[in-house]
Specification:
The protein is α/β, with parallel strands linked by helices. The chain contains four helices and three strands; from the N terminus they run ααβαβαβ. It has a three-stranded parallel beta sheet with strand order 1-2-3. The two termini are 27 Å apart.
C-alpha cells in the first residue's frame, strides 16, 4: 500500500512541476527532496503508531505477527514491528511469534527481530 501511495504522490509532484515549466535540474532536486520528506514522514508515522500501540501491550507478553509489518513495508521502523520496538524501548518484555505461510520469509523476519534483541519464534 505504501508503495502505491508514494508513486501517486511522486506522479502528482512531477505533473505539477511540468505544469510550472520546471527545468530538469529543478525536477530532479524537487523529486529528491520529496523522497527525503516522505522517508521522514513515514518514520515519524511509524514511531507514533508504535508509541500508541505499545501502550496497549502488557509489560510481559507475546505478539503474533504476520507478513510484512516491518522494514519491507515501511522505511525501516515498521508498523506492527514498530509497536514491538516501542514496547521494548519502554522496557516491556515482549515475545514475538512470527508466523508465516512461507517458511523462508518467517526465518528472515525472525532474523530481523532477533538482531533487534527481541526473542522470536521460530528462532532465527
Amino acid at each position: 500500500m505504501n508503495l502505491f501511495w508514494a508513486i501517486d504522490r511522486m506522479k502528482r509532484l512531477f505533473a505539477a512541476l511540468l505544469d510550472e515549466g520546471a527545468t530538469l535540474a529543478q525536477v530532479q532536486e524537487r523529486i529528491l527532496a520529496e523522497a527525503h520528506a516522505m522517508y521522514e514522514e513515514d518514520i515519524a508515522a511509524c514511531r507514533a503508531m508504535g508509541a500508541f500501540g505499545a501502550a496497549l501491550l502488557p509489560d510481559e507478553g507475546g505478539v503474533l505477527t504476520h507478513c510484512n509489518a516491518g522494514a519491507l513495508a515501511t522505511c525501516g521502523y515498521g508498523t506492527a514491528l514498530g509497536v514491538i520496538r516501542s514496547a521494548v524501548e519502554q522496557g516491556k518484555r515482549i515475545q514475538v511469534f512470527a508466523d508465516e505461510t512461507r517458511p523462508f520469509s518467517a526465518r528472515r523476519r525472525a532474523h530481523r527481530l532477533g538482531t533487534d534483541g527481541r526473542p522470536t519464534f521460530p528462532p532465527p
